[in-house]
Each structure stands twice: as C-alpha cells, then as structure tokens.
Write a structure and sequence with these properties.
Elements: E1 3-7, H1 11-23, E2 27-31, H2 34-43, E3 48-52, H3 60-69, E4 78-82, H4 87-95, E5 100-103, H5 109-121
Parallel strand pairs: 1-2, 1-3, 3-4, 4-5
Length: about 120
C-alpha cells in the first residue's frame, strides 16, 4: 500500500481528499501546515506528497525549498496542487523539484487521485 502525505490547510478539503485516497487503497497522512508536514516527514517517509501551495505561515514554496535541503527526504516526489494559478509560482515549484502543479479547480477529486496513481506508477 502506497503512503501519501496530503498537506492541505482547509480542513474540509483535507478530509475529503484523505477519504478519496483512502478509498483508492492509499495509506494517508494529513497535515494542515508546512510545520506539521515536516513533523510527519521526520517520522515516516511517504511515497508521495500532495502539497497545497497557499498555506498559513510557511507556504508550499518555502516548504519545497527547505525540503530539498534535507537529503533524507529530498527524494520524495511532490505534486503541488493549488487554486493559486500564478505562472511564476508554478515555475518556481517545478524548479524546486515538484513533479507537477495541478490547479484544484481544473480537476475533480477523483481525477486528482488518478493523476497521483499515474505519477506513482512512473
């Protein structure tokens, strides 16, 4: 069973994505901030991180920047997902190693699950 860490600060969205991924046979950890995500990463290594970009305090870009400095977790694939459709932010996320940048409103939750399955199959 693949483990995924979902970093989403909107509680309702986080719970909904957790349920969708759990039903798709993923082991899911949920963090509502970059700080909480770092705590989870210290204890367990997920197969993939689904990272919201707009987070309180440290945003997704700051999280990616810090994560890449830590060798033990820098190899975990990250998919950024956000409603923040800014070309510069997208470019920066990809430059920092995100494998994809999904705009939440362009996909149903089930389509996001399928995209993640495809990324993990690569």
């Amino acid at each position: 069973m693949k483990k995924i860490l979902i970093v989403e600060d909107e509680k309702i969205l986080g719970e909904m994505y957790k349920e969708k991924f759990s039903k798709a046979n993923f082991d899911v950890a949920l963090a509502d901030s970059a700080e909480k995500a770092k705590e989870i990463l210290e204890k367990e290594k997920p197969d993939l991180i689904l990272l919201d970009i707009l987070l309180p305090r440290a945003n997704g870009i700051a999280f990616l920047t810090e994560m890449k400095k830590k060798g033990n977790i820098s190899s975990v694939p990250v998919i950024a997902f956000s409603n923040f459709d800014d070309p510069e932010t997208k470019k920066e996320a990809l430059r920092l190693g995100a494998k994809d940048y999904l705009i939440k409103t362009n996909f149903t939750p089930n389509e996001i699950v399928e995209r993640i399955k495809n990324h993990l199959a690569q």
